[in-house]
Specification:
- The chain has 14 helices and 18 strands.
- It is an alpha/beta fold and 522 residues long.
- It folds into two domains: 94 residues, Immunoglobulins (Immunoglobulin-like, Sandwich); 306 residues, Ribonucleoside hydrolase-like (Inosine-uridine Nucleoside N-ribohydrolase, Chain A), CATH 3.90.245.10.
- The strands form four sheets. Strands 4-3-2-5-6-7-9-8 form an eight-stranded mixed β-sheet. A four-stranded mixed β-sheet has the order 13-1-18-15, with no helix packed on it.
- Helix 1 packs parallel to helix 2, helix 4 crosses helix 5 and helix 5 runs parallel beside helix 7.
- The protein starts with a strand and ends in a 7-residue tail after the last strand.
Length: 522
């Protein structure tokens, strides 16, 4: 009898955090942030600093985009360069302007100054938090003159270039919170320096293997017009629309039961009040802030009434998914964007195998502007799905292009709240994530119809009680078949694979361990 073999991928929630757990062996991902600056970027940056212990931040570079650029400082009328249409937005003919919604090149340093006041307390929780001085030294000015400008090298582009070319072989994750123009300029400078030399083939291969670009939407044309054509082997994660559930449109996209983690009362209690200057700096709806951005009306005191939202509501962190992908919550998605994680789930482009894009329903962007769903439907495990179009949303009983990201809202926000506590509380008074291990290999190849026993163990640095939950992430696999899980809420479980599992099918099983601390962490 011929046996059909399938593969099981185990994803355990493994994260070592805290001063007593600094022997973590997983190297921290190297990353460079490029940002065009608005309230969205500022809030993403504030949260980023609370995760700077888990990342190796090697650059913070002011850049530009279709939405924000500085001008030449001489009052010249400039017309944007390298413009492309963005998903969900009508094509607009650019006009000549002196500058466009530019909020300057000091807001990053101002936020780092708030971080500096919290730093002595943060290192009580993890000594790997970078010093404020080291963060200041990473702030560079890139190509900010006009949208899509990559004409000349800048301090920021040269910084990116030198890190890409350094002797450290670890990948460098280049985050484009605005346009990709400063990143593109760095790559162009590499090409100009080496293309006509005998070193070019080696340099080209090195850069292609080392650089990973995470694009939040396509906010200028430099990726399409230059990078994609000249550096097609660079791995790219292109978040076209998925980020909107953690951005300005969250209240029309995030399932209603999860929206409480983004509402004003939750934000005020868990982030804004009593958590030190960094968290107090976080921008929420209607608080009267002024970033000198003429198109930002979210800070206006009348904004909550006008938008029919609560005062202090979450506004947007559309850029945060770019580094959520890098956080080690055990989902192993940093090398496998298609497996899904806190930064969403991405599928390999059929046309460009090195490009991973977020799932999108037919008609895609039209879903953004549709009416808010008021009625929540009962969940079912029998819904068929197309993994290229999203995840099954149990709150609406539909395949949802945004649910690969929005499903993690409670995990993300509770973890954010814990780190806000770290700004002001001693280690013993705050909560920290449990650590989880699974016995044996995390990748298992076996025959269809097989029954497998799995055993896990977990510890909590605060001595909190732990709860276990084994669940199948169907969309991260390549089949809608359901595996039978026995003792779903126990450290020891048994899974049974369907007898009719075809050859080559992969199933993804997640062990989620949560503590009963405040806030509860997974």
């Amino acid at each position: 009898m011929k046996q059909h073999f399938c593969k099981i991928i185990l994803l355990s929630a493994f994260l070592c955090i805290g001063a007593s757990l600094t022997a973590q062996q997983v190297p921290r991902p190297r990353t460079i942030i490029t940002t065009d600056g608005e309230v969205d970027d500022a809030d993403s940056f504030i949260r980023l600093l609370l995760y700077s212990n888990d990342l190796n931040i090697e650059g913070i570079v002011y850049s530009s985009s279709q939405h924000h650029w500085a001008g030449d400082g001489k009052g010249s009328l400039l017309k944007p360069l390298n413009r492309v249409s963005m998903p969900g937005f009508p094509v607009q003919e650019p006009k000549e302007e002196i500058s466009h919604r530019w909020i300057g090149t000091s807001w990053v340093q101002e936020i780092i100054a708030d971080y500096a006041q919290c730093y002595p307390n943060l290192i009580k929780h993890d000594k790997r938090y970078p010093t404020p001085e080291s963060l200041y030294s990473l702030v560079k000015i890139g190509n900010i003159e006009v949208e899509g400008d990559m004409r000349n090298p800048t301090e920021g582009s040269e910084w990116i270039k030198n890190i890409i070319l350094d002797d450290n072989p670890d990948k460098v994750y280049l985050e484009a919170w605005g346009g990709t123009n400063t990143i593109a300029r760095a790559l162009l400078s590499i090409e100009e320096e080496y293309k006509s030399t005998p070193k070019w083939n080696d340099i080209y291969q090195k850069v292609s293997e080392k650089a990973v670009i995470h694009i939040i939407q396509d906010q200028d044309g430099t990726y399409r017009n230059y990078v994609a054509k000249n550096w097609p082997n660079i791995k790219v994660i292109y978040n076209r629309l998925q980020f909107f559930c953690f951005a300005y449109l969250w209240n029309t996209i995030v399932p209603e039961p999860l929206q409480k983690y983004l509402k004003g009362d939750w934000m005020l209690q868990n982030i804004k009040e009593g958590h030190g200057p960094l968290a107090a700096h976080y921008y929420c709806l209607g608080e009267g802030y002024d970033l000198h951005d003429p198109d930002d009306h979210f800070g206006e005191p009348e904004a909550p009434e006008r938008m029919q939202q609560q005062l202090h509501n979450f506004i947007s962190e559309g850029d945060s998914p770019s580094y959520f992908v890098l956080l080690d919550f055990g989902l192993r998605n940093i090398n496998h964007p298609d497996w899904g994680g806190l930064g969403g789930r991405y599928v390999s482009s059929a046309q460009h195998p090195n490009v991973f894009i977020d799932p999108q329903l037919p008609g895609g962007a039209g879903r953004l502007w549709g009416p808010k769903r008021e009625e929540q439907k009962p969940s079912t495990e029998k819904v068929k799905f197309d993994r290229s179009q999203g995840d099954y949303n149990p709150y609406t009983d539909e395949v949802d292009m945004f649910y690969p990201q929005s499903r993690w809202v409670s995990v993300l926000q509770n973890d954010f709240a814990a780190r806000a506590d770290w700004c002001v509380k001693d280690y013993i008074a705050a909560n920290h994530s449990p650590s989880v291990t699974v016995e044996g290999p995390l990748d298992i190849q076996t025959a269809a119809g097989t029954t497998i026993s799995l055993k896990a163990s977990a510890t909590d640095p605060d001595g909190n009680q732990l709860s276990y939950k084994w669940w199948q992430y169907r969309e991260a696999g390549n089949s809608d078949l359901i595996i039978k899980i026995t003792n779903k809420n126990s450290p020891v479980t048994t899974i049974e694979l369907p007898d009719d599992t075809p050859l080559g099918v992969s199933f993804h099983l997640i062990l989620e361990v949560s503590d009963n601390g405040t806030p509860s962490l997974a």
